[in-house]
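The protein record filed here:
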Amino acid sequence: MDVIEMLPLLLPLIFIELIMKLISMLDIIKPERNVKYSKVLWGILVLAMTGGWALYYLVGKED
């Protein structure tokens, strides 16, 4: 299977990943949001890692 054949399967996953990164970043930058460690650290992790948004929701949120 080459990349062209896999593209219809990958596009929805890529779209979901980008939407979740956006939602996570908007949640992190809220002034009233308290996070463990640092907002900058979580922002970098969410943007740099695939699935970083899931890590943020599992570990990073205090409330």
Remarks:
- The chain has a mean pLDDT of 91.
- The chain has one domain: 3-60.
- Residues 3-28 form the longest helix (26 residues).
- Helices lie at 3-28, 39-48, 52-60.
